[in-house]
Design brief:
The complex is a heterodimer. By secondary structure, chain A is an alpha/beta fold. Chain A has ten helices and ten strands. Chain A has a single domain, classed as Rossmann fold. Chain B has two domains: 137 residues, no CATH class; 223 residues, MetI-like fold, CATH 1.10.3720. Chain B is built from 20 helices and three strands. The two termini of chain B are 43 Å apart. In chain B, 35% of the residues are buried. The chains are: A alpha/beta, B mainly alpha. Chains A and B meet through α2, β6, α3 and α6 of A and α15 and α16 of B. Bound molecules: adenosine-5'-triphosphate and magnesium ion (MG). Adenosine-5'-triphosphate binds next to β2 and α1 of chain A.
């Protein structure tokens, strides 16, 4: 049994009048890949964004309930969301590299968090992160070319490398492979599996196969409710809720 | 499951007719015709615009180019000692006692001499009549020279003196013998002399640097008026506008766009800023009069006050364009920065602002250009109609001393009765347009320089 990294209790999210997340309680373990699945619009992204307070940037969004990271309430008044996001990194659905060089894309996070003492340190971090993002071989000769000049799949791996570079403890990924071809997807999945050694990874995906391949735990959301949460094997082979069963067999969604 | 989407019979309902791709059907023809019509409208609209532009530019150049040429009379003036320095001591105070009236006889004599040399008969016995050909400012020029170089007294020195505006007009075809019939300032006999002197190379037209660098002159001396001092006034005003409007405008826009909560109060501010952009500029002028001059007691007609008034006027323009360019930065860039743990401020200054820069700069320069060409608010703070005859001494004076501005100067010239000023107004407009054009070019260059893909 792994340690619990994130505990959510009775989380409710409202966008103005829309009730997007209804009373969700879940435990996310350390060194584990947790997959969020569910039909479009069920609130997967919304819940994921609660975990690093990315929803703070949306004016109309209101979050209630408790979310604890290592036992500390991340919505406590004393918590600075910027400090939180350094610990809980995020990869977005659409690749969004900065319009800067590949090197600067990776180096930006370590720079603002003071992770490198000197230039050689920073170079090391950049190389290590790009390697972990499975993109080093493709870009090592053009580190100073713009990151926006890469292909969509390369950009997404660059974004993963960028998220890894700040040494987060938890990595949130919102459909990271939706823009990737099968080969790049396989690389990213392999990467996720490696990342599990050091991080707690939460991944939103629309691909049942992907969830089954990479995750150890799976949460199924439906219309803002957490319908079922458990071991991936058990959810995919023997779901206890009929809604889960009909979703993974392709009958609703 | 899938067949539920296709009700029975939907597939076989209408029998397909096959058509040839080589023949256009009626619908396509209609569409293409509409497109062709629209293109024609567009081209016609652009053509009309271009024609108007060509007419405007050519008429401005045609009417204004004369201001850049001026007629001069080159005379050898004998600086008689007994007139200029009776004591012979070259004491500068004694020389200064001789007023410009003391110099007139010398110039008259030199002119009579030049006429005699051409061989033409001189019908004027009185120097006063002859002198009408020369600018009334000429004596002052000679006097200034003598005060600078007292050692030249007693010698004969060559001077290039301004011709009077009528003579200048004659060489530029503005004044004719017929028009002189109703003009007491010059007679047709003068024109005979001018013809002869022009033949001898004494009367010449030359490039008029004084128009670009000089100060405005009194109503009776259009040949001396220049736009240089008011250009400097405009320059100081633009400095004030840039120094005030850019930081205030950009800071306000960043706050409103990136930090301010969305609520009724910020909505109210937003509506008011949009409304301010539409307020007539003369209203800002009267506001400036009330606040800066009557309340804060800043000096009247000063470029500082003009600059502050124009700042008020340009702020809404800058804020609106800055906010638009901040808005156009894709939100994914902000999310990316926040996602790696950048603070709001770091996100804005490291990522959003650089991307918005071209838009901000363009907006600012367009705002400045607008301010540069504005006349109405300057009317109310006394920058129109003021004749600054000297360059300000030093930078502080430049901001505080009364001055005019280019558009105000042009307006002033256009108002004056003498037709010679009409030409100067057009010339001033050419210079103003050159400034506006170079500002726009700078805006384009900056835009290119800062623009980046994302
Ligand atoms: N910024 C927002 N403002 C208002 N409502 C929002 C906002 N973002 C999401 N919602 C609403 O919240 C609900 C959940 O959206 P969410 O993006 O979390 O769905 P999702 O499960 O990620 O869907 P998908 O799989 O399509 O990405 C939806 O009903 C959506 O309309
Ligand atoms: Mg989503």
């Amino acid at each position: 049994m792994q340690d619990i990294k994130i505990t959510a209790r009775g989380v409710q999210v409202h966008y103005g009048d829309t009730h997007a997340i209804k009373d969700v309680s879940v435990d996310i373990q350390d060194n584990t890949v947790t997959a969020f699945i569910g039909p479009s619009g069920c609130g997967k992204s919304t819940f994921l964004r609660c975990l690093n307070r990315m929803n703070d940037t949306i004016d109309i969004c209101r979050v209630t309930g408790d979310i604890l990271l290592d036992g500390e309430d991340i919505y406590d008044k004393r918590v600075d969301p910027v400090q939180l996001r350094a610990k809980v990194g995020m990869v977005f659905q659409k690749p969004n590299p900065f319009p800067k060089s590949i090197y600067d894309n990776i180096a930006y996070g370590p720079r603002i968090h003071g992770l490198a003492r000197n230039k050689a340190d920073l170079d090391d971090i950049v190389e290590k992160s790009l390697r972990r993002g499975a993109i080093w071989d493709e870009v090592k000769d053009r580190l100073h070319a713009p990151g926006t000049g890469l292909s969509g799949g390369q950009q997404q791996r660059l974004c993963i490398a960028r998220a890894v570079a700040t040494e987060p403890e938890v990595l949130l990924m919102d459909e990271p492979c939706s823009a990737l071809d099968p080969i790049a997807t396989a690389q990213v999945e392999e990467l996720i599996d490696e990342l599990r050694e050091n991080y707690s990874v939460v991944i939103v995906t629309h691909s049942m196969q992907q969830a089954a391949r990479v995750s150890q735990k799976t949460a199924f959301f439906h219309l803002g409710n957490l319908v079922e949460f458990g071991d991936t094997d058990q959810i995919f082979t023997n779901p206890s809720d009929p809604r889960t069963e009909s979703y993974i067999t392709g009958r609703i969604g | 499951m899938t067949d539920a989407a296709f009700p029975d019979g939907a597939n076989g309902a209408a029998p397909r007719t096959t058509t040839s791709l080589l023949a256009q059907d009626a619908r396509t023809r209609k569409r293409n015709a509409a497109e062709a019509r629209f293109r024609a409208y567009g081209i016609a609209a652009i053509a009309v615009g271009l024609v108007f532009l060509a007419v405007l530019v050519s008429s401005i150049i045609f009417k204004g180019v004369g201001a850049f040429q001026q007629t001069f009379i080159t005379l050898n003036v004998e600086l008689l000692e007994e007139k200029l320095d009776k004591s012979g001591t070259r004491d500068i105070e004694a020389i200064k006692k001789v007023t410009t009236f003391g110099y007139n006889p010398l110039i008259d004599a030199a002119l009579a001499q030049a006429i005699a040399e051409t061989g033409i008969e001189n019908p004027f016995s009185k120097g006063k009549d002859l002198r009408k050909m020369i600018s009334s400012g000429a004596a002052a020029d000679v006097r200034d020279y003598v005060i600078e170089n007292p050692d030249e007294i007693g010698k004969t020195v060559e001077f290039r003196l301004l011709a009077s505006s009528r003579v200048d007009g004659y060489l530029k075809d503005r004044v004719t013998r017929e028009s002189l019939a109703r003009d007491k300032n010059l007679s047709p006999e003068h024109l005979d002399i001018v013809d002869a002197l022009a033949g001898a190379g004494v009367v010449t037209k030359a490039f008029n640097t004084d128009f670009i660098t000089g100060a405005d002159a009194s109503e009776s001396r259009p040949e001396q008026a220049g736009i240089g001092v008011s250009m400097l006034g405009s320059f100081y005003m633009m400095l004030v506008v840039l120094a005030c409007a850019l930081p205030i405008g950009v800071a306000a826009s960043i706050y409103l766009e990136e930090f301010a909560p969305q609520n009724g109060f910020t909505d109210l501010i937003e509506v008011n800023i949009s409304n301010l952009a539409a307020v007539p500029s003369i209203v800002f002028g009267i506001l400036g009069l009330a606040v800066f001059i009557q309340f804060a007691h800043l000096p009247q007609s000063a470029p500082l006050v003009g600059g502050l008034v124009l700042t008020l006027m340009t702020l809404p323009t800058i804020i609106i364009s800055t906010r638009a360019s901040l808005k156009s930065v894709p939100p994914s860039i902000r999310e990316a920065a926040l996602g790696v743990g950048a603070s709001k401020m770091q996100t804005v200054f490291h990522h959003v602002l650089p991307l918005a820069m071209p838009g901000i700069l363009t907006g600012t320069i367009i705002g400045l250009a607008q301010a540069l060409g504005e006349t109405a608010p300057l009317l109310l703070i006394g920058m129109v109609g003021y004749i600054a005859s000297n360059y300000p001494d030093g930078v502080i004076e430049g901001f505080m001393a009364p001055n005019s501005a280019m558009p105000a100067q042009i307006y002033e010239w256009a108002k004056r009765a003498d037709p010679a000023y009409y030409e100067r107004a057009w010339g001033g407009i050419i210079i103003l347009l050159l400034f506006l054009m170079s500002m726009n070019i700078i805006a384009i260059i900056l835009r290119r320089r800062f623009e980046r893909r994302w």
